[in-house]
Amino acid sequence: MLFKNRRVAGQSLVKELVAYANRPDVLVLGLPRGGVPVAFEVAKALNAPLDVLVVRKLGVPDQEELAMGAIASGGVRIVNEYIINLVNISDEVIARVTVQEERELERRERLYRGNCPLRDLQGRTVILVDDGLATGATMWAAVVAVRKQQPAQIVIAVPVGVSETCHELKTEVDKIVCLSTPRPFHSVGRWYENFPQTTDKEVRELLAKATKNGEPISLGT
Known about the structure:
Number of helices: 7
Strand content: 15-25%
Largest sheet: 5 strands, parallel
Radius of gyration: 17 Å
Low-confidence stretches: 212-221
Helix content: 25-40%
Structural class: alpha/beta
CATH architecture of the domain at 6-54 and 117-211: 3-Layer(aba) Sandwich
Number of strands: 10
Mean pLDDT: 92
Order of helices and strands: HEHEEEEHHEHEHEHEE
């Protein structure tokens, strides 16, 4: 095991992100749900605001862990043509799965943010945080969604990931921090001693608790 839990993983990430501490342009975006406890520790240590960017994997029917694509807030959808052709997935199946995941994405948006929109990302340094990278589908979607808002920089920060995935994403962002790329990888959860599913309640509590300069952060401001 590399990390005791997600919060310890976040604290470990901070050591590689100290250059972003106390900068007014920095915003930390956690990918719900598992990325939020990691992102909370990063935002707290960097004295930066925390928000979430909701993303959803488009899983292959009956093989949910195999991603044929992903969606993100802002109407972003990406697809993995290799997987789609390999498994011979029809356009109808892709559309059906997309509709299902869009419903869940909208539910989480309402639950986590209410009526507050995502913060304005134009000209900011955005640090995207998750608990790990396997296929990287949701992180790809997150990068596309963020780039649409014309940030100054996009940084990816994860405790552990597949080496090839981290290498591919490196060409799409300004910086990527991946603390470990073990082989064989198997799954993100393998590299944590405690890896329970993060709940909606925990995400909401961490967002409410997030602070900057000692003052509560109001999402969407």
